[in-house]
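Progress against Task 2.4 (sequence-to-structure conversion) is shown through the following example record, which the project officer requested during the mid-term review.
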Amino acid sequence: MKVRGQRECSDCGARWSYYETGSVECPECGSLRSVGVDDDRRLHTDSPAELDLTEAREAVDARPLREVADRADELARGYVRKRGFVRGGDLLDLDETYLAAQELRHAADVVRRGLDLSDDEEWYFLALLRGADADPETDRDADPRPAPGEVPTSMHPVRGLAYAEAVEEYRGDAADWADENDVDAAGRDALESLGDRVRRVEALEGDVDAETSELLVTAAREVGRYLRAGDADALASARQRFDRLAE
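Structure tokens generated for the chain above:
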């Protein structure tokens, strides 16, 4: 949606940025009576959100794994629902935390339904639970999510579907952003090609190897760089990845 970023409280006169808080509630007095004070409405799909899986992690040794998976799913879903990729008119990147939340959701669903999880599948879910909410840029001691070669073969569809869903959400926001910013034909073609590759993975129900899932995400990020900065090298690299994904 397109919204005014600056708001002013009708009761106390305080001003704040809706793009930063995602709320019309005054941060000073709590009043819900406020008005937009700038004339410029900008595309905005992202809301402040924090992925905190502490509660689910603390339940690992105390509750059945299915209950842990239920709580992890609830926390990840709550985060994903708030997230978007355009903030105050600026196109964001497809970030690791969003990817991790989507992957944890899908993995948790498998754990909830699974009658006989293998040790590798249980390890994979717990590894995601340990590291999905860590910020790799600030938390150097955090456990990384499983690398492509570490994902159990039986869980390849989990990563495949999670990444396809994440990329499709990103592509949708990027397409809306492109409509607002007079993006050239090359950028629009790249978005269309990205959508084609997503649909291919979805048609396979995510059953692609983990390296293919990584290719899809990397291509999406490269398309984003081209849209934001006109990076021709990023566009050329994305096209090469599209070709590989079509093989």
